[in-house]
Every structure is written in structure tokens, then in C-alpha cells.
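Batch job 17 of 40 flagged for manual review because the log was empty.
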Amino acid sequence: MSSKCTIAKIETFRVPPNRWLFVRVETNDGIVGWGESTLEGHTEAIEGAFSDLRRFIGVEADNIVDIWQEAYMGRFYRGGPVLMSALSGLDIALWDIKGKRHGIPVWKRKDLRSHQRDQPSDVLDTAKNRKAEGFTCVKMNATDIVARIDSPEVLRGTVERVQQLQSVGLGVGIDFHGHFHKGMAKQLAKLLEPLHPLFIEGIDNLF
């Protein structure tokens, strides 16, 4: 393995239905790191930002902080969702490479583990913990990914989970995470209305 690991290639990949954009960074010694630079509705703009970020090809891949600072500070106009989304994907990919070079997961190297599980069925136990910590409201996943036309049982399960959380004494916000097609989302929103959730989010063109 070369002692000097430099960035050799930066590529982007759209994932249908073009909601997600992934970043692949390869080094001169063949190590590949992956990141995500999704900004829904602005995929082409992110790809354009990567045309500029490819100026870091040839730079040492371990210089992650320097690359980030130069990418952010090196232009007169800074920040914004497009640049920051592109830069976050590049940053993740470079940390992925660093972890692979040193044979240790990035979350372990930086003590970044946050979620060992995140399923709708976990919300009650998590909510009880938040209640004990003094929180008065929580946000929950609506459900797992749902088919365009799915069983009403899927919707009833979500309603029951909201009721469980409210029974603990918590206000509930619900994130659909784009898992619902419009028809199913409208049905679930109607079922949830009597429960008066704090909000629902992650649904396109619900009304």
C-alpha cells in the first residue's frame, strides 16, 4: 500500500427515482469510500457542485479537515444547501476511506455510534426513556416502507403506536419519511386526525 494515499476519482450516482445521490471516492491505492449527498429536488445542482469539488483529486485523502475547510472557505460565497450537501457526502466518503485504511469502523474510531436500531416497533420503549428524561414530546417513524396499495392493518398499526405514546403523556409528531404514496398517505392522515398529532411530515403533495 502506498504511504501517500491521494484522491484519484470522485464519482456521483443517482438512485431512482432520483431522490438520492451517492458519492464514490477512490484513492490511488484502490480504497473506495462512499458518502451520501442527497438534496431532494436539486440532484443536478449537487452534481454541479461536485464538478467543482473534483479539484481535490490528487490531494491526500487523510487531509479531511483541510479539504473541508478549503471547500467551504475557499470561495467568496460560502455555504448554502447545495454546497453543504455535496461537501457532506465527500466528507463521509473520506472518513469511510480513513476507517478502511486503519481497519476500524469510523463510528468506533470517532465514538459516533448513535442508532443500533430505528424501527417503528421500537418507539414505545424509546418514548418511555425520553419521558423519564423530562421530554414532553417525541417524533416517531410512521411505519416501514409501504406498497402503493397496502393492507389497512399497516395504517392501524401506526394509529395504535401514536395512541400508545400519547398514553405515556407525550405529544407526538410523525415522520412519513416519503414511505407512503399519496393514496395511502391520505388514508393515514385521515385516521390520525382525531388524535391531533403535533405535526406530520415527509409527505409530498398530500392535499
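Reviewer: the log was empty due to a logging misconfiguration, but the result itself is present. The longest helix spans residues 81-102. Unflagging and moving on to job 18.
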